[in-house]
Design brief:
binds 2-phosphoglycolic acid, alpha/beta, TIM Barrel, 8 strands, globular
């Protein structure tokens, strides 16, 4: 069985004092959520703080973006090797906010995923459709294409090392969640895409759901067979909510 990954995406939120409180609140007894992997993806300037606070705990930390280049004259970029030096084990690539506001293409997202893997990081590859695309019944085509571009750039051996996050844009930060059945249908389609490249990788790869996941809907979403965790924005900023989602994941795993 795949271990559930409960990943917080802090987005551009936080302060040294606020983070200390939040991290203090989520540093729990590792045996409490033993069936889950816990992760926070913090803004780059706070990765050293995450490393200092979380090293030796059951909570991993990661970044929200990475350069598609390894080093050099790319002002403002942060290389995967730098994230690795600060103990990151994961990095989000291709979040819809970056695709929308920074114009990131799926090809750029694929190059970022490759850089992350080379540095030993696990890329969390985000895909998702807009409301207009869903209404036009183009969800599978749009989301499938976003994943295909990344899969094409990877060696078969690396396909098993990625995490995918399905995040419908109309559900992000809106309080509207995809129903468990809607999300499951897309996750199943995405797993079939991975299986076309490697059946073994498809069995192993974790596919997260993101978009207004909260303590009160997490259990139902996580109970679906192809939903292996959550990428959580708003609810990851409160220790209590983040841990309540981990608790829901733990209960689903225990019941399986
Ligand atoms: P949300 O954000 O949980 O606030 O909807 C999820 C995300 O964008 O990763």
């Amino acid at each position: 069985m795949r271990r559930t990954l409960i990943a917080g995406n802090w987005k551009m939120n936080g302060s040294l004092a606020g983070n200390a409180k939040l991290l203090g609140g989520i540093k729990v007894d590792p045996t409490r959520y033993a069936a889950c992997d816990l992760l926070v993806c913090a803004p780059a300037p706070y990765l050293a703080q995450c490393q200092a606070e979380l090293a030796g705990t059951a909570v991993a930390w990661g970044a929200q973006d990475v350069s598609e280049h390894e080093a050099g004259a790319y002002t403002g970029d942060v290389a995967a090797s730098m994230l690795a030096e600060f103990g990151c084990s994961y990095v989000i690539v291709g979040h819809s906010e970056r695709r929308a506001y920074q114009g990131e293409s799926s090809e750029a997202v694929a190059r970022k995923a490759v850089c992350a893997l080379r540095a030993g990081l696990t890329p969390i590859v985000c895909v998702g459709e807009t409301l207009a695309e869903r209404q036009a019944e183009r969800t599978d085509a749009v989301v499938g294409q976003q994943l295909d571009v990344v899969l094409q750039a990877l060696d078969v051996a690396d396909v098993a090392r990625i995490v995918v996050a399905y995040e419908p844009l109309w559900a992000i930060g809106t309080g509207v969640t995809a129903t468990p059945e809607m999300a499951q249908a897309v996750h199943q389609m995405l797993r079939a895409k991975i299986a076309a490249k490697s059946a073994e990788a498809a069995a192993k790869a974790r596919i997260l759901y993101g978009g207004s996941m909260k303590p009160d809907n997490a259990g139902q979403l996580l109970a679906m067979p192809d939903i292996d965790g959550g990428l959580i924005g708003g609810a990851s900023l409160k220790a209590e909510d983040f841990l309540a989602i981990a608790q829901a994941a733990q209960a689903v795993q225990a019941a399986a």
